[in-house]
Specification:
The protein has helices at residues 25-29, 102-105; strands at residues 2-6, 9-12, 17-22, 32-38, 45-50, 54-55, 64-69, 74-79, 88-95, 113-115, 118-123. It is mainly β. Strands 1, 2, 3, 4, 5, 6, 7, 8, 9, 10 and 11 form an 11-stranded mixed β-sheet that branches. The mean pLDDT is 95.
């Protein structure tokens, strides 16, 4: 199952975007969902996750919000106050399990389902 992510685009510094991703139903109701990003020449980076709670790295805390709509099988990433360093391909990820630790939510290799990625470009 490949997830379908959408909502990327080009935005100016300080702008907002909302990414969406259709996920398997069980992953929202009883599992874990997350967003990662990868900039050119860099490793894939954890951005946000939800499961037992919501989790963010310091680089996006207070600017990004992850949420889910079980009726629509969709997880969202609301991104505000965007910066040029947020430019990357954003990937959604999901798993049928609810991870037990914050560190597990932030590990890309924990997730079974992945989306194809959506490009986010923030101009200065």
């Amino acid at each position: 199952v490949q997830l379908q992510a959408s909502g990327g685009g080009l935005v100016q510094t300080g702008g907002s975007l909302r990414l969406s991703c259709v996920v398997p139903y069980n992953t929202l109701s009883r599992g874990s969902t997350a967003w990662f990003r990868q900039a050119p020449g860099k490793e894939r980076e954890f951005v946000a996750a939800t499961g037992r709670g919501t989790y963010y790295p310091d680089s996006v805390k207070g600017r990004f919000t992850i949420s889910g709509d079980s009726a629509k099988h969709t997880v969202y990433l609301q991104m505000n106050s965007l910066k040029p360093e947020d430019t990357a391909i954003y990937y959604c990820a999901a798993d049928d399990r609810t991870f037990r630790t914050r560190s597990a939510f932030a590990q890309a290799d924990q997730y079974y389902y992945w989306g194809q990625g959506t490009q986010v470009t923030v101009s200065s």
